[in-house]
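Handout, page 2. Input:
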Amino acid sequence: MSTQSIEKAEFEQGPIRPPNESQSLLLRITRNCPWNRCLFCPVYKNRKFSLRTIDEIKTDIRTARAIVDDIRQLSWKMGRAGAVDDQVISAIWGKSRYSHCYQSMAMWLYYGTGAVFLQDADNLVMRTDDLLEVLQFLREQFPDISRVTTYSRSRTIIRKTLEALKRIREAGLDRVHIGLESGSDAVLKLIQKGVSAQQHIEAGRKLKEAGMEVSEYVMPGLGGRQLWREHALETARVLNAIDPHFIRLRSLRVPKRVPLYAKVQDGSFQMQTDDAVAAEIRLLVSALDGIHSTLTSDHIMNLLEDVSGKLPQDKERMLAAIDRYLRLPEKDRWIFRVGRRGGAFRTIEDMYQDRATTTRIERLIQEIEEKQGKEGIERMICEMVDQYI
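Output:
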């Protein structure tokens, strides 16, 4: 591959990755989602699932490796001794001749995480031997990788034998992200998740027995106003049975482009308010017992980012963070919500420290309330948060 062709080299990448994989190398192993029926999900709709060939995947891995080697050579030419630092990044991002993949590889080297995330939605659906071949080749090309992670579905995982999962782990897959969403069978049926609570438990335990880390995604608000309590308590029950390494909160949002929006419009699904979701999360966290998971709230769709910590030692602190929000006067809750959704605040403490921003938001809220009432404020907040989906 010539220098010019390397600068323009591309390899296939999918549309999404977990927020905590923002500094990871992204490689697409399968395309889209083999299930693709979840009512809350806006991703992959109207896109057909397909398996990529082993040759296609290996070609992409070779391309990524060639780009890394070229970036290192560029660093040496710039007198940076192979390091990918601010000067190297500026040289690459400041010139349009470099492809997006070349630039993203430069950022991967700059961050230095050594992490790789395999896209798209359910890579364990691959034949075990094919996945093993991909993982082994990836580790051969990048021997200094720190971890390899991927998405998968519980129903797919339980179809693999424990022996197969152990082989996959030995080949280099360290962590699996699973969309648990809910531990309530009623909620899972409502959203067409295609899996039961017991299957979630079986999958999580099976991965752990195989030696992999398990990251479970939970969606506060998914039970709506009717099933919120069952959603919280049954989800806690399933998590207690799995004791995953990570529990990641992803609060429900329903923009117009997701199938669940039709149920919101006809009234068969009633959305929880931000305050009700906060109370729901409190019930969930209070019911988590006997586990040692790390709970994270690492997404802008979550109102309370500081509901994060290690169980059991940080449980009371997380509950206190929720209580602090729920005890705020209504006006202050509005100010915080607008500031949080607009990216100005991360925690309630920010609202008190940045008085200038708080004052501006307060005036904005007053203007909207005078013209449109409380409904106008809620509509503005909803539009602000939905832009992140």
